[in-house]
Design a protein that fits this description.
Blueprint: E1 11-15, H1 29-38, E2 43-47, H2 73-84, E3 87-92, H3 98-103, H4 142-154, E4 160-163, H5 179-189, H6 202-229, E5 234-238, H7 247-255, E6 261-264, H8 276-287, E7 293-298, H9 311-323, E8 327-333, H10 334-339, H11 344-356, E9 365-366, E10 370-374, H12 376-383, H13 388-403, E11 408-412, H14 413-416, H15 419-422, E12 427-430, H16 438-449, E13 453-457, H17 476-479, E14 482-487, E15 492-496, E16 512-515, E17 534-538, E18 543-551, E19 568-582, E20 585-590, H18 594-601, H19 604-618, E21 623-626, E22 631-638, E23 641-648, E24 685-693, E25 701-704, E26 711-712, E27 715-716, E28 720-728, E29 731-738
Parallel strand pairs: 1-2, 1-8, 2-3, 3-4, 4-5, 5-6, 6-7, 7-8, 10-11, 10-12, 12-13, 13-20
Antiparallel strand pairs: 9-22, 14-17, 15-16, 15-18, 18-19, 19-20, 21-24, 22-23, 23-29, 24-28, 25-26, 25-29, 27-28
Amino acid sequence: MTKWWEKPVRVVQFNIEDRYGRYVPLITGKELVDLAESLHANVLVIFARDPWGRIFYKGGRVGPQHPKMVNDIVREAVKEGKKRGIKVVVMVGHTANKYLYHKHSDWAQVNKNGEIILLEHVPFQQEHYEPEWPQLCINSPFIEHVKKEIIESHGLKVDGIFLDSFRYQPDVERACYCEWCRRKFREEHEYDMPKEPNWTDSRWRELWEWRYRVVVQRIKDLYEVSKSTNPDVLFMYNSHPGGWAGRTNRVVELARNYLDVVFAECSEVDHQPPGFITEMTKLTKAMSGGKPVWSSRNYFHLYRTVMSSTPIAIKQGLREAVLGGGSPWMLIFSISYIQDPTALDAVAEVYKELESIEEYLEDTKPYTYAGIIVSNRTRDYYGREHPERYVDEIRGMYYALVHEHLPVEFIAERDASDPNTLSKYKTIIVANHVCMESLIGDAIKKYVKEGGSILSTYLSSTRDEYCIRRYDYYYPEVIGARFIGVLRSPWSYIILELRKKHPLFKGIDKRVILWGDMSYEFIATRTIPNMGWHAITDYITGKVLARVGVPITSWGHEYTLGRSPPASGTTVDLPAIIENKYGNGSSIYFSGQLGRHYWRTGVPVYRKLIKNTLLYLADEPEIYIEAPETVHSSIFTQGDRVIVHLLNHTYNQRIMAMGIGRIKQPLPPYSSVEAVHPVREVIPVSNVKIKISKNIIESQVKVYSPLSNINYEYTMNSEWLIVPVNKVNEYEVVVIEPKK
């Protein structure tokens, strides 16, 4: 039987996280349900307790009742929600609990120096600073307290239990070395927890993995407590996929069997690219093994919780969750609700439209074409304290395909060892997947041999799952070359063999393409480490399509002396692009980091190389969207229906100057460097086309929008059914289905 949480939902989360509870006397459970109903939400998420340990219901035993609460907020919300068909989910186990800390300071997480690890942001450690949100350790008796919170919340007849992220991190800067952790680790391993990272020491690697296992075990323990109390109550966890160096993605990948739903908190959205929430939704669905994902758009702009963002930023953010195959989640705080409710109508507008098209959101599957394997091990072991050295390559590949309207999904490392998973895709992207276990390598070999294709880059498969060198690719027969080292050049070029007019170079009229990027900090190095580097290959059995070019000097002499790239010098006998056939399949290999270049610079030539490679390997997808790159398209199937979502990101020129101030200059910057403006206006787009191959659609179809109530005309030629969408304002949904 389908559970209620397995269907699309519309969530509003209402947080009261004010130390003094300024507006708590004005808030009742009934009013919160009224709010959810007015917004057309069908799920309300509220605190069972706040980070100060205060509970929002009467008669509880797990903490003091909030002193400014007038009525019983949780019980009243549950009662009203059941009357109106609105599910009420409560958050428990908040990482911080100041009340418990004052009773049991030994339960706090402490770093390797014995200092308390804080959840709040403190500019500097003041001499007599009192921790506001000390993080409590899940190896301490605190976890037994969380179990009591869950059981007590069940007694309130709630519809779901929401477990916040534990923030129990493996990184040494945030890792816990409290007495409970040290004792537990010593009992299990018979040696002390290492305090300094040493990735060649098995004891450090074991500690790193142990911290993940601790989190997963605690999630499992709490899941079992909840399900043994009432199996029909939802159990969910906050993954925060873009936060904390992406570490929590590994937690979700490992703990997926103990989660009903995963919450993808996307609080970074205002300083990330348009489409970020869609990206995080897809990533979280991959990590969770396809579990329902509910993804958030903050009501407020950036982290300014007392003021709302623009209506269009809120609307498009909520819709982004739907394009990722998830459900939208609006997070609002009590202060912004009282002080700045101006954008609430925007939430209601989106939730009302999604309510009206709910039939077209249920039981859908993303149309699969390209799959990007995401390796959490590579991020951890190869990326270490610089995960961007791996993640940039993934994100560059992803956004290049999104901008070119080539359907793309993520594949979790855990699932990539299954050839049946890989076979769902026409092509697989192995983007600098350095630390590859043999099972994944074997699955890729089988996939290609049986007719699949891969685009792989740089050091993929050259190390095992613990990042120990193999001194070769795991599958040289697939690549068509042997790995023999790395060319460590701060800048380089790839020189295309344009005379051969290979399809990879379609639309590219330049022969020399820059490889590398400057360091914006410009303190320790002139360039970003390893961006200009290339894998050195030997014993080539594949076809070389481009070679490496080395510069005439190590840094440039034009414009900003020392910062600019040097001119190209000599082409050397090192392959930069290799094409190879293996079995019934094929491979294209780039010796450098192609995706990372697109992510960092956005220069179209890198995107064209990615697009042309996929089209060459896998042909054009059988469902294809022709539109400007500012229109984000997502394609789903629902039985014999094809459902196309078109989200228009053609915005005003928003200012985004965050981070530029890191550039080392002899004088202060000209203006503030932290400027991040929200989008304010959508520019309508015309002449979008949806193309569907006649191989997968019947000749007699009807094409319409359940959102705008438009019946679309279409034309057919020998290959394609073509649907012109004359205008896309903010958002459009187009359905193509057989006539009955």
